[in-house]
Amino acid sequence: MSARGAALRLRPRWDDGLAQRLARSAAETEAGAAIRTTDVPGWLAERARAHRFRVTPIPFHELDGWGFAPDTGNLVHHSGRFFTVEGLHVRTGGPPHLEWWQPIINQPEVGILGIVATEFDGVLHFLLQAKAEPGNPTPVQLSPTVQATRSNYTGAHRGTPVRHLELFTDPHRGRPLTDVLQSEHGAWFHHKTNRNMIVETGAPIDAGADFCWLTLGQIGRLMQVDNLINMDTRTVLACAPVTFGDAVARHDDTEVRSWFTAERTRHDLHGRLVPLRGLPDWTIGDRSIEHVPPRYFRVMAVSVEADNREVRGWTQPLFEPLERGLIAFLTRRFGGVPHLLTHARVEAGFHDTVELGPTVQCTPGHHGSGTGPAFLDLIRSAAPGQIRYDVVHAEEGGRFYHAENRCVVLESDAAPADPPPGYLWLTPGQLTALLRHGHYVNVQARTLLSAITTGAVVL
After folding, report:
1. Taking 80 as the threshold, does the pLDDT of residue 177 lie above it?
2. What parts of the sequence cross the membrane (predicted)?
């Protein structure tokens, strides 16, 4: 053996102690290193008062740096960066919808959603930021340490640098606990991907007044409050490598992956970007791009004033859903082991057509009794004692305006043990194992999973 070969040091393929450290953090629910859980909403309100942040809807002609491209009518930024609003034409191989057109956000760059972790008194804490976004229904929510598009962190906005970014771009600054590419909303983004990261530092960092250290258990308690934990925090925490002790399940992991691969291959969906101008069933007005008749969502524009962001003021388009949505997991025990009923969802903006979603993901106002997706009526008729989780969470406020979902976990023995095609019972551990890889579990299911991984939901 060469001297160089002898000097190489082999290491374990995984950290056996990490799951225990995460479990200990999840058990600490009352007080962290610097702030009590009950004081966090007041701290967020104080941070909101400390900064000027104003959002005003505006007509499209008041957008600064944005405009409709002469050839396509696409809504674009003059720099060619950030994102564009384009048209999408979708064809499917079968019902319920064979063909449709819609506006969609095209943002091919990969953003970073990163949370810093470190230990205080032997307990892992996570660094979250009090951050305002133009589309938030409550302006300031708990966001990741870093939440930045590539355009932002490479300086396309000509603003100040993104604080703490180096902890996620320099591999020598910390140890990754999770690092995986995940999709965003497949109904509103075309092939959008973000890098979801948790990086542990050996010592606490000088965070700043708009940041706070919280345990996983504290975050779980705060996940029980409407519109307090933002979407980007939820998706990152869903990817944390927690364990649930579910060594047995209805289906073994190889069977799950085979079923999922079969779901991807059996669906026929073709989506192609088309010009926004002349998009069938949609009209472009002075203040909005809307479906005719008004339905689903609209595209609008806002002007933003902010004194604590990389840029003090800007304008941008936002997508605004017309009604609140519903995302829900049905849960049931088999042999004493909790399972979640997942749905292989087809969405036009996914890279691979299908990702695992919650049991129900829809806008209930679009469906009367007996006319909606499978299991919607079961959610609607649930008794209060069956509900394990029922909280309203906002979607990403940097691209969506007042987009909210009612997020529900419902225990029901009425849910069929052998569900219809496209549905499969998985344990929480099986889902979190899939989240170590990209594009298996959609962002709506990740929101509900984050409530389980942080202890906000006890199954």
Report:
1. yes
2. none
Q: Is 422 left (phi over 0), alpha (psi -120 to 50) or beta?
A: left
pLDDT tens for each residue of 242-282: 999 899 999 999 999 999 999 999 998 999 999 999 999 99
* pTM to 2 decimal places: 0.94
With helix as H, strand as E and coil as C, how does the chain read?
Answer: CCHHHHHCCCCCCCCCCHHHHHHHHHHCCCECCCCEHHHHHHHHHHHHHHCCEEEEEECHHHCCCEEECCCCCCEEECCCCCCEEEEEEEEECCCCCCEEEEEEEECCCCEEEEEEEEEECCEEEEEEEEEECCCCCCCEEEECCEEECHHHHCCCCCCCCCCCCHHHHCCCCCEEEEEEEEECCCCCECCCEEEEEEEECCCCCCCCCCEEEEEHHHHHHHCCCCCCECHHHHHHHHCCCCCCCCCCCCCCHHHHHHHHHHHHHHCCEEEEEECCCCCCCEEECCCCEEECCCCCEEEEEEEEEECCCCCCEEEEEEEEECCCEEEEEEEEEECCEEEEEEEEEECCCCCCCEEEECCEEECHHHCCCCCCCCCHHHHHCCCHHHEEEEEEEECCCCCECCCEEEEEEEECCCCCCCCCCCEEEECHHHHHHHCCCCCCECHHHHHHHHHHHCCCCCC
**Mind listing the pLDDT tens digit for each residue in 278-317?**
999 999 999 999 999 999 999 999 999 988 766 789 999 9
Closest of 249, 240, 246 to residue 455, by C-alpha: 240
Residue 156 has pLDDT above 80, yes or no: no
> What mean pLDDT, rounded, does the chain reach?
93
Contact 165, 423 (CB under 8 A): no
Per-domain residue ranges of the chain: 253-270+323-453
The answer to whether the bond into 419 is cis (omega within 30° of 0) is: no
What's the CATH fold of domain 253-270+323-453? Nucleoside Triphosphate Pyrophosphohydrolase (3.90.79)
CB atoms within 10 A of CB 212: 23
CB atoms under 10 Å from CB of 4, counted, come to 7
pLDDT for the residue 359: 98
Which range, of 114-123, 149-158, 392-401, averages the lowest pLDDT? 149-158
From CA 395, how far away is CA 399, in angstroms rounded?
9
